[in-house]
């Protein structure tokens, strides 16, 4: 953790190391600051909410994490350096699925080329209802 922080130009502190370690070990990769705060404290790593906000801002500025905003949600963070991907988001339960599709990437590249644009990066978020929520919505409307 110390080498990652140093390579990112950040001062190495115990709290930053603990937070970065938590982010690399947690299964869920789209976390709000509140999720991170609760997760750290559940592991016995006492850290204030304001401290987590401040460190996450530093991590974002250093390029260690990416901050994403999705409809009707607080900002979520994911570790940077992951392969490029897009997101499917359920409007009912908030389920978030990462996916990659070479055909979508090709279509975006072709559209950009046709309009004289070189793509630096893009963000594709698709909103709908997961199958479970869709079934629940249909059963409620059928009653």
Protein described:
The chain is of the alpha+beta class and 143 residues long. The protein has two domains: 1-80, Winged helix-like DNA-binding domain superfamily/Winged helix DNA-binding domain (Arc Repressor Mutant, subunit A); 83-143, Dna Ligase, domain 1, CATH 3.30.1490.190. Helices cover 45% and strands 15% of the residues. It has six helices and five strands. The protein has helices at 2-7, 14-25, 33-42, 49-61, 102-114, 131-141; strands at residues 65-68, 76-79, 86-90, 96-99, 125-128. The strands form two sheets. Strands 4-3-5 form a three-stranded mixed sheet, with no helix packed on it. A two-stranded antiparallel sheet has the order 1-2. The longest helix is centred in the middle third of the chain and has 13 residues, at 49-61. The chain starts with a helix and ends with a helix. The relative contact order is 0.12. The model has no long low-confidence stretch (mean pLDDT 90). Belongs to the Fur family. It comes from Shewanella morhuae. It holds the Pfam family FUR.
The biggest beta sheet is recorded as:
3 strands, mixed
How many structurally independent domains? 2
Q: Poorly predicted ranges (pLDDT <50, ≥5 residues)?
A: none
Number of strands: 5
Class from secondary-structure proportions: alpha+beta
Instruction: Write the H/E string, N to C.
Output: HHHHEEEEHEH
Shape: flat
CATH superfamily of the largest domain: Winged helix-like DNA-binding domain superfamily/Winged helix DNA-binding domain
Strand content: 5-15%
CATH topology of the largest domain: Arc Repressor Mutant, subunit A
User: How many helices does DSSP assign?
Assistant: 6
Q: Would you state the CATH class of the largest domain?
A: Mainly Alpha
End-to-end distance, in Å?
54 Å
């Amino acid at each position: 953790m110390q080498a990652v922080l140093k390579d990112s130009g950040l001062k190495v502190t115990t709290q930053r190391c603990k937070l970065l370690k938590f982010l690399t070990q947690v299964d869920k990769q789209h976390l709000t600051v509140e999720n991170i705060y609760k997760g750290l404290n559940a592991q016995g790593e006492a850290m204030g909410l304001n401290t987590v906000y401040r460190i996450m801002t530093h991590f974002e500025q250093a390029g260690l994490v990416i901050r994403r905003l999705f409809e009707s949600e607080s900002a979520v963070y994911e570790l940077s350096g992951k392969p490029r991907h897009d997101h499917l988001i359920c409007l009912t339960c908030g389920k978030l699925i990462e996916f990659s599709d070479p055909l979508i990437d090709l279509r975006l590249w072709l559209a950009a080329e046709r309009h004289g644009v070189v793509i630096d990066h893009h963000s594709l978020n698709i909103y709908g209802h997961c199958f479970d929520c869709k079934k629940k919505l249909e059963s409620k409307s059928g009653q």
